[in-house]
Amino acid sequence: MKATAKDKHISLTPILHPWIQQLLHDKDLLAETVKQENSPVNIQSVLPFRENIAEYQTIFERYGLKHKIYFARKANKCLTFAKVAAAAGEGVDTASLKEMQQCLEAGISGDHLILTAAIKNIPLLELAVQHHVTIIIDNMDEYESLDSIVRANEVPATISIRVGGFLMEDEKIPTRFGFSLTEAYRILTEQIKDHPFLAFNGLHFHLNGYSIDQRAAAIVQCIDLIDKLAAEGISCQQLDIGGGYLVNYLERKEEWITFHQELKRAVLGQRSALTYQNDPLGMTLINGQLYGEPTVYPYHNEQAKGIFLEQILTSQAVPYDKPIHELIQARNLTLCIEPGRSLLDQAGITVARIVFRKQDTEGNLLVGLEMNRTQMKSSSADFLLDPIHITHQSTEQQEAVSGYLVGGYCLEQEFLLKRKIQFATYPQVGDLIVFPNTAGYMMHFFESQAHQFALASNVFCNENLHMDKHDGD
Known about the structure:
This protein is of the alpha/beta class. About 30% of the residues lie in helices and about 20% in strands. The chain folds into three domains: about 20-45 and about 345-470, Lyase, Ornithine Decarboxylase, Chain A, domain 1 (Beta Barrel), CATH 2.40.37.10; about 45-245 and about 300-335, Alanine racemase (TIM Barrel, Alpha-Beta Barrel); about 255-290, no CATH class. The protein has helices at about 20-25, 25-35, 45-60, 80-85, 95-105, 120-130, 140-155, 180-190, 210-230, 255-265, 305-315, 325-330; strands spanning about 40-45, 65-70, 90-95, 115, 135, 155-160, 165-170, 170, 200-205, 240, 285, 290, 315, 320-325, 335, 350-360, 365-370, 390, 400-405, 420-425, 430-435, 455-460, 465-470. Strand 7 (about 165-170) and strand 8 (about 170) form a beta hairpin.
């Protein structure tokens, strides 16, 4: 469809931490960093990370709760963040043998680590036992493997039990992880209560999605189980409610609302496309009718980070007629959380160099970057923040142009962003594109070395804008 006067560009303006704003103003430093490290490069800062930890600590202190914040290291592979979390008196959630080994080698003690790996093989379990890392047991095969290790070596191990299948409005919340509450009660009373080597310290859950009500319901059902266990003489010291704490990426709510409205109009053919080949970003169009919603992260949120946690804690616990934080405090529980994305909010950017401009067969401007799509990818159907174009050319008296960012893999689908991007001036070879706020899940979670491309370098920017190499992956 031909663009009309109403088909103007839809901006999605990112929030930028002061350290990022300061760095963006130093074009020469950015260019020199990319030259030294090659493109792309992940530039990160521990300052926002510390601020985010402090925000959660403040909420726990406000409600007088014992707590432990375990940084979900899978969200970013840089060991620096794990060390900062431990230095702040918190811990690290490890999800693989290498993650755990690196944390231990960095001097983080085992009692500051937990093991939540989806697959826990014998070497991983043995390392956790050796270093007194709390192991989150997800299924009976894991339990039996751990049981055989501790009995064979006559050594103790500390465990938590992962539970799932909570009820919400009489409907079970689906999950592939954990034991049902009934199964957890059985295994704890029949097999773990009198185990000579396994010490039970609490319950753990992690819910998919971002529902406060679901988390509140899950906590209440865990409290019920904790009380039943106490009646059997089984003490629960902690309740771990996992991660999934929302982040707010965008400055303006109205831009987020407008984008969704206009994307639907575009897919229905009521305006020009917002995405390459009018990609619906997860929606389905059947006989002129749109079904579903875009399968994208909710990039604008008014209930982010500490606010999200506080709303969980202040939710009324039915049928106790008390807020959840009072139930936790009354049982002297340590409340544990495992944030990843939210601790990394504003902690990193990804910078890449432009290497070509061209048109595809439909006349679309394609801007090729020296990176590939796995180096800036998450489970969201698209990364819905405006990238920042860094150029030394003047933008005065130049018309804005729109196009798409593409990467280095030899695939038709190799688009870094599916959304059409507007440039203030025509991009030049050697210009830089900055993707903001990528430290959480974007820069590392799916990165690959197909075509034998090198992985992106990771550097840390200190308060004086000095760049330090990352201290190991």
